[in-house]
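Exercise 4. Each item below gives a protein and its sequence. For each, produce the structure-token representation.

Item: Putative SAM-dependent methyltransferase (Rhizobium freirei PRF 81).
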Amino acid sequence: MLSFSKRPRKKPSKNPLKIFDQYEQGAPSHQNAINALPGWNCAFPPEFNLEAGKLPLYADDRIDWALRTFGSIEGKTVLEIGPLEGMHTYMLHQHQAARIDAIEANRLCFLRCLVTKEILRINNASFVLGDIQAWLKEREGVYDLAFASGVLYHMADPGEFLRLLALRANAVFIWTHFVLEEAMPTDDVRWLPFSGNVETRIVDGNPVRYYERSYHHANANASFCGGMKDRHFWMHRNDILMLLREFGFNEVIIRDEDLNHPGGPSFSLLARKTSGDA
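Answer:
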């Protein structure tokens, strides 16, 4: 004998043609891919006619300066730390690097990088999700040039990061904030995110000042692109330059030093190993 469940049947949907929320109903487009991910910071080149963020990092004069100062990267290997949304990667791609390894720890930023890679056809770059310090420890070989723009001041251990980076790169471009007391009087509002705690750590035998800082819950926003830990440290300007020299970068060129930057004093620099030190 056949038996049938006596459970009441669910009422059919009033709209039997309803499409599930995870599907895109519009005509296929790159804009759909952008809209699928929240928190965009960067704009796309205007000729693509796409709406994302506001920052025009696809034409960043800091990266342009670094490439002109370093020389041609055609056929060279490049490491990019914290590619954000891939716009600097796009600039490196245009200069025909042989290979770009772009390491991003933020999951949403990583996914946005993949969208950018597809739209801008960045075919010589590999975006990899994970911790750069683990990458530097585990990988073999040395890159011709490394880029760390907007990275150092987000680190929980910035001195150790510089030490590891020096083992894996013959030249580095860095844009970073730093501490310089004479540029930030005690009543300067730029001190507010700092806890007041200053540690001295020994990095490869060198004493380095670490100034403790917090994001104060900024990481709750989808556009957050800071570090992996709330407790992170800024370095003193002089300590950054000292460590670079100690780690073998005997040529350091500072491009722009902005002591009045609203986020804190900052500079761009290109450091490289020369005269057989590489």
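Check: The domain at 46-179+186-272 is CATH 3.40.50.150 (Rossmann fold).
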